[in-house]
Design goal:
By secondary structure, this protein is mainly α. The chain contains ten helices and no strands. The longest helix is centred in the first third of the chain and has 24 residues.
Length: 224
């Protein structure tokens, strides 16, 4: 998953060139995969398409498969993650589902991927399903990060089931929202799509009184 800064002015010339080269590698790797299959081209042929050396390629990606998947060494901006954790310590604390909604909406705003790129990636996975385990492994790493953030925000034991359940449910809804966002004919922003879907989720689980929510630390309970 790629994240971009709020403004292109934040990037220097060298960084913009690096991002452009990586983007070109990913696009070419996916196009060659669709045309010839994953086993139908080599790293050398991919490099020839872009005009870079094999050595340069491995500065960006550890393998051809990672280039196809668009492996990125960039992490989610730390200030967003810090704000998410801090929102649980405000007075009053932001409800977790609201904080998660804001977090996913912010991620969606910062995604540097077009509808065409998303559709191409879907076509690549359809043609080469053996790439799915790599994709799942990457998603698992991101999911564990979110679990850890929820644990820290809520002050829960590391083995508490709630953070894992929240990550599974809302993470799945966020991925489904991406499908809707990139669907032909959609004119809603990603934040609008994810907020609409999470609002629908809320209808399934009416709020319970704080005393009926076992397992949460006293700091998250209504003192009244």
């Amino acid at each position: 998953m790629y994240f971009m800064p709020n403004s292109a002015k934040e990037l220097g010339l060298r960084e913009r060139k690096r991002l452009q080269t990586r983007s070109s590698l990913v696009a070419a790797a996916r196009r060659l995969t669709l045309e010839h299959g994953l086993g139908g081209f080599t790293v050398e042929q991919l490099c020839d398409e872009i005009g870079i050396s094999r050595r340069t390629f491995f500065n960006y990606f550890p393998s051809k498969e990672d280039a196809v998947l668009g492996h990125s060494d960039e992490e989610a901006p730390g200030e967003i993650l810090d704000a998410f954790v801090a929102s649980g310590r405000s007075d009053p604390p932001t409800p977790l589902i609201d904080a998660l909604t804001d977090l996913f909406a912010e991620f969606g705003i910062r995604l540097a991927i077009s509808r065409e790129e998303y559709q191409m990636m879907s076509a690549v996975l359809h043609r080469e399903p053996q790439l799915m385990p790599r994709l799942f492994a990457r998603a698992e790493s991101k999911s564990q990060l979110l679990v850890d953030l929820i644990v820290a925000r809520e002050g829960l034991p590391a083995d508490h089931p709630m953070p894992r359940v929240a990550t599974f449910v809302l993470g799945g809804l966020a991925r489904r929202s991406l499908d809707e966002f990139f669907a032909e004919g959609n004119d809603l922003s990603y934040p609008d799509v994810i907020r609409r879907n999470i609002d629908a989720l809320r209808l399934l689980f009416p709020p319970r009184p704080p005393e009926a929510a076992p397992g949460l630390p006293a700091s998250n309970q209504d003192p009244s």
